[in-house]
Amino acid sequence: MSGWGAAFDWARRHVEAGRLPTAVLGIATAEGTVALDAFGATDGRTARVDDPFWLFSITKVLTGLTAARAVERGLLTTETPLASAVPEFGAGRDDVVRLRHLVSHTSGIPEPSLDPPQGLRAALLAPGRDFAAGAASRYSTVAFEGITELVRHAAGWEWDADISAWAGAIGANGFTLDPGVDPHPVVDAERLGLDMRGFAGHRNPGAGMIGTAADLLALGSELLRIGADEGIASAALPRPNGVVQPATLAMMRRPLTGDIPRLEPYVAERGQDWGFTFNLRTRAPGLIDGDVFGHGGWAGTEFWVHPTAGIAFVLLTNQAERPGVELDELDNAVVSGV
Hints:
Layout: H1 5-16, E1 22-29, E2 32-42, E3 45-46, E4 53-54, H2 59-72, H3 99-103, H4 120-124, H5 143-155, H6 159-169, H7 196-201, E5 210-211, H8 213-227, H9 232-235, H10 246-252, E6 273-274, E7 279-280, E8 293-296, E9 302-306, E10 311-316, H11 327-336
Antiparallel strand pairs: 1-2, 1-10, 2-3, 4-5, 6-7, 7-8, 8-9, 9-10
């Protein structure tokens, strides 16, 4: 772990101080995983590097890749309206919600809880709107139910089955919606009002996946290889496995939000844009490196790719409220350790 001692010290320090119950931290390059360690325990269960965790909103990246695969196959475009797959959507709305709105949190669909009692489909079809499509950005998980409806209608495949297919090709065989794999429980979920059993039952395409650090590190390596595809022959790196094409990844990294109003919780001061489901932290004031893309999750999970630095990193943990934990510190320690 030579170059990344400061990053692993960060994780160890937060666990020892009680700010995080567990921390599995891993770092990868385009050639594969280069550092991986685990700290802490959940109710006496020692965290190990191959343990599964609830990924929460990192799921959005996985679903986004599946939707992008449908786009590059000519089955969808970013302009495809949601109503083409769900004709009953948008009753009473005078705007058109398209795939590009769903992937960039600009659809204006009212957001339910993570465990909506009426189910995701009913929540997607709830009347009203927060704003006209494209007029503002407010973080949305229910929009991903719309993305999977578009994929199902246009491509004929189920989002989780396609994730299993492309993930298996890169050696990431642990992504699952099945809590029977025994992920570390989220220690404060009950206190914060989230019924994890009910949540798991929704099979939420914006938040429901479980996975390991190795799964996400394999994906990070693959995205680094895809992004560097033109120079792979001279660099003697493994060829990408075809999750998406380089032009598709470039499309996913293009900002879709521009300078429209940013509503809570991702206000303008946070310095990020939304791409095709990627969080693009291009303007984050606390970061050394400005070309990072990826996503975080509700219980503290993090997955970020730094193309110029040639690094991807993963943090898995299991606590939603984390006072005193500043992700930018970890990001800078990872990048500066190259």
